[in-house]
Amino acid sequence: MSVAIKSTPGSLSRRRLWGLAQGLLTLTLTLFGLLLITFLLSALSPVDRVLQIVGDHASTATYEQVKQQLGLDRPLPVQFWRYLERLAHGDLGIASATGQPVLQDLLHAFPATLELATLALLIGATLGILFGVLCARFAGGKLDISVRFITLLGNSVPIFWLGLLMLLLFYARLQWSAGPGRLDDIYQYSVESKTGFALIDTWLSGDSGAVRNALAHLVLPVCLLAYYSLASITRLTRSACLSELNKEYITLARAKGAGEMRIMLCHVLPNISGTLLTVIALAYTSMLEGAVLTETVFSWPGIGRYLTTALFAGDTTAIMGGTLLIGLCFVLINNLTDLLVRSLDPRTRLR
């Protein structure tokens, strides 16, 4: 005879606390691993950081003096410990390309990337979920085939090529949109950068022409990134919906007379919300870390363009700081997504 064991409130609380402790430990170890890998990649880089500072014609004495000042003459464990100490004080080093602290450069560039990726995600996720649901609802129909073909192109065409084509057509030929950059020169130096977000700063300035100009510059890069995120979100939403439609509770709902769209909205979407959140989070992190080509094509002064410039200049300090920031965003967004999935899906709360 089997005996059912009920969970008491005390055991549930202990289980939740243990789950929280495991999550914090995992987050700590992940961040430590990120710091260690970032440091090792920089330390083992063939680029000589000392030579970048002193130049090719410096004397041996000057070279050794600068190397000692940077602490590069010490063992790697000691260098790593000093690196952690500097990070604790917000010191990411000085970028040789700009001569400014890396943290200051990143704080200046990151809002541009965040603005671009967030607007693209809002459009891509909204349309992606809508098209995914419609494709699952009319699977095998003309709408399904058309949308799948368009999304297949989104995953096949190189993003830089499509960006150059959009600039050639809509900016150079038709002149329907603004060109590269965030603002025209007439507004670039007249609008005070208070938040780092072009739309907010132009709105705070009270200049309606500047707001329209900021929107005009955002249209092409936002649409380009939204198209690529829409492609993956649509396909995965469609697959998740079709998988859910084959389950028994859907058959029961149909037997009770529920309409197909009601089943989609009231039964299928709530049950795949965890999957959708995960897909959207992955799309967001990929845009934050993978917008390098888009920012380069559209001369968008964000993290991607900053890292590209640092890479060509061999500025390992700037590359190290930018990589660390992107990795930190990736870790935090994924952990936040896990928490949201657990709060929305009761089936995952006690795992």
From TrEMBL:
Belongs to the binding-protein-dependent transport system permease family. The chain crosses the membrane at residues 20-41, 116-140, 152-172, 214-230, 263-284, 318-341. This is Peptide ABC transporter permease. It is a multi-pass membrane protein. The lineage of its organism: Bacteria, Pseudomonadati, Pseudomonadota, Gammaproteobacteria, Enterobacterales. It comes from Chania multitudinisentens RB-25. It is found in: Cell inner membrane; Cell membrane. Its main location: membrane. Keywords: Cell inner membrane, Cell membrane, Membrane, Transmembrane, Transmembrane helix, Transport. SUPFAM superfamilies: MetI-like (SSF161098). InterPro entries: BPD_transp_1_N, MetI-like, MetI-like_sf. Residues 110-341 form the ABC transmembrane type-1 domain. GO terms for molecular function: dipeptide transmembrane transporter activity. The keyword Membrane applies. It comes from the Bacteria. GO terms for cellular component: plasma membrane.
